[in-house]
Each structure stands twice: as C-alpha cells, then as structure tokens.
Amino acid sequence: MRIVIQRVQHASVTMDGSVYSSIGAGLLVLVGVENGDVAADAEWLAAKTSSLRIFDDEAGVMNRSVKDVGGEVLAVSQFTLTASTRKGNRPSYIRAAGHETAVPLYEHYCKCVHDFTGREVKRGVFGADMKVELLNDGPVTIIIDSRLKERHD
C-alpha cells in the first residue's frame, strides 16, 4: 500500500457539485492499494498515519501527531498512486489491486486510523469521480509505502 499524507488546514471531497465529506485542520490521506497488499500493510500505515509527528508543538517544532493535536483525518482512495511510469509516457496501473481486494483494505486502513486516533475518519467514495480540495499547511506532504519499511539495525 502507498499513501500520501498532507497536513492541511482544511480539505474536502465534492461529488456532483456537492460536498460529500470535509475536515478542518488535520490530515488528508490519499490511499493506493496494490496487488499483494494485506491487512498488515493497512495496519502499519494506519499506525504511521496516527503517530507521525508532523504538527508543531509550543516551540514551533514538528513534534506532535494528529492524535496529539486532536486533528481530523480525511482518507481518499486513489488507485493512481500505484502507477508505474518506467516505460513510456502513459502510466500503467497494472499493479493496482482489484475492487475485491482494494475496498476491504482501504476500509481496514480507515478503521485502524479510527482505532488509533479515537476519531471518525472522513472518507471519499471508492471508485467515484471526486474533486478533492485542500489547503496544505506548511506545505507538509509525506509519501509512505508499506513495501519500503525502513529497518533500524
């Protein structure tokens, strides 16, 4: 699984001209699920999302997590995060997990973030044509891939 985390002042998902979901200060997370991903990937990423220290403390140092600051989370599925761009100029999405795998893992990720933060995770609609609007705060944008876990030996 691959996620893009953006620290935002606010974010929203609009469909058919109406706001479907929105948050204030917190995290907008774009979530891509690849073939071969499993529940442990979603759980590891949810723990990272909830504990990543990217919010300022009293001294202005990024030392607090979204759960520390009581921030909100908006998670939006995005299969294009699985794009392969190694050959040619047209991205290939062959690594993207099918609906039957991606939906449960996206939902599991959202549930785990909820469990870690104690707050409702707002969502987009899987597979829908969505317009995502945000005001990135910082800007702070972080990409995390569950297949590229760093080891500290």
Radius of gyration: 15 Å
Give unreliable regions as ranges. none
Overall pLDDT: 95
Shape: globular
Distance between the termini: 24 Å
How large a portion of the residues is in β-strands, by DSSP E? 35-45%
Largest sheet: 6 strands, mixed
- The number of helical segments is 3
Structural class: alpha/beta
Topology pattern, helix = H, strand = E: EEEHEEHEHEE
Task: Characterise this structure.
The protein is an alpha/beta fold and about 150 residues long. It is built from three helices and eight strands, in the order E-E-E-H-E-E-H-E-H-E-E. The protein has helices at about 40-50, 65-70, 100-115, and strands spanning about 1-15, 20-25, 25-30, 55, 60-65, 70-75, 120-125, 130-145. The strands form two sheets. Strands 1, 2, 3, 6, 7 and 8 form a six-stranded mixed β-sheet that branches. A hairpin with a 2-residue loop joins strand 1 (about 1-15) and strand 2. Helix 1 (about 40-50) packs parallel to helix 3. The mean pLDDT is about 95.
Describe the secondary-structure layout.
Elements: E1 2-15, E2 18-23, E3 26-32, H1 39-51, E4 55-56, E5 62-64, H2 66-69, E6 72-77, H3 99-117, E7 121-123, E8 131-145
Helix pairs in contact: 1-3
Summarize the structure.
The protein has 153 residues and is an alpha/beta fold. The protein is built from 3 helices and 8 strands.
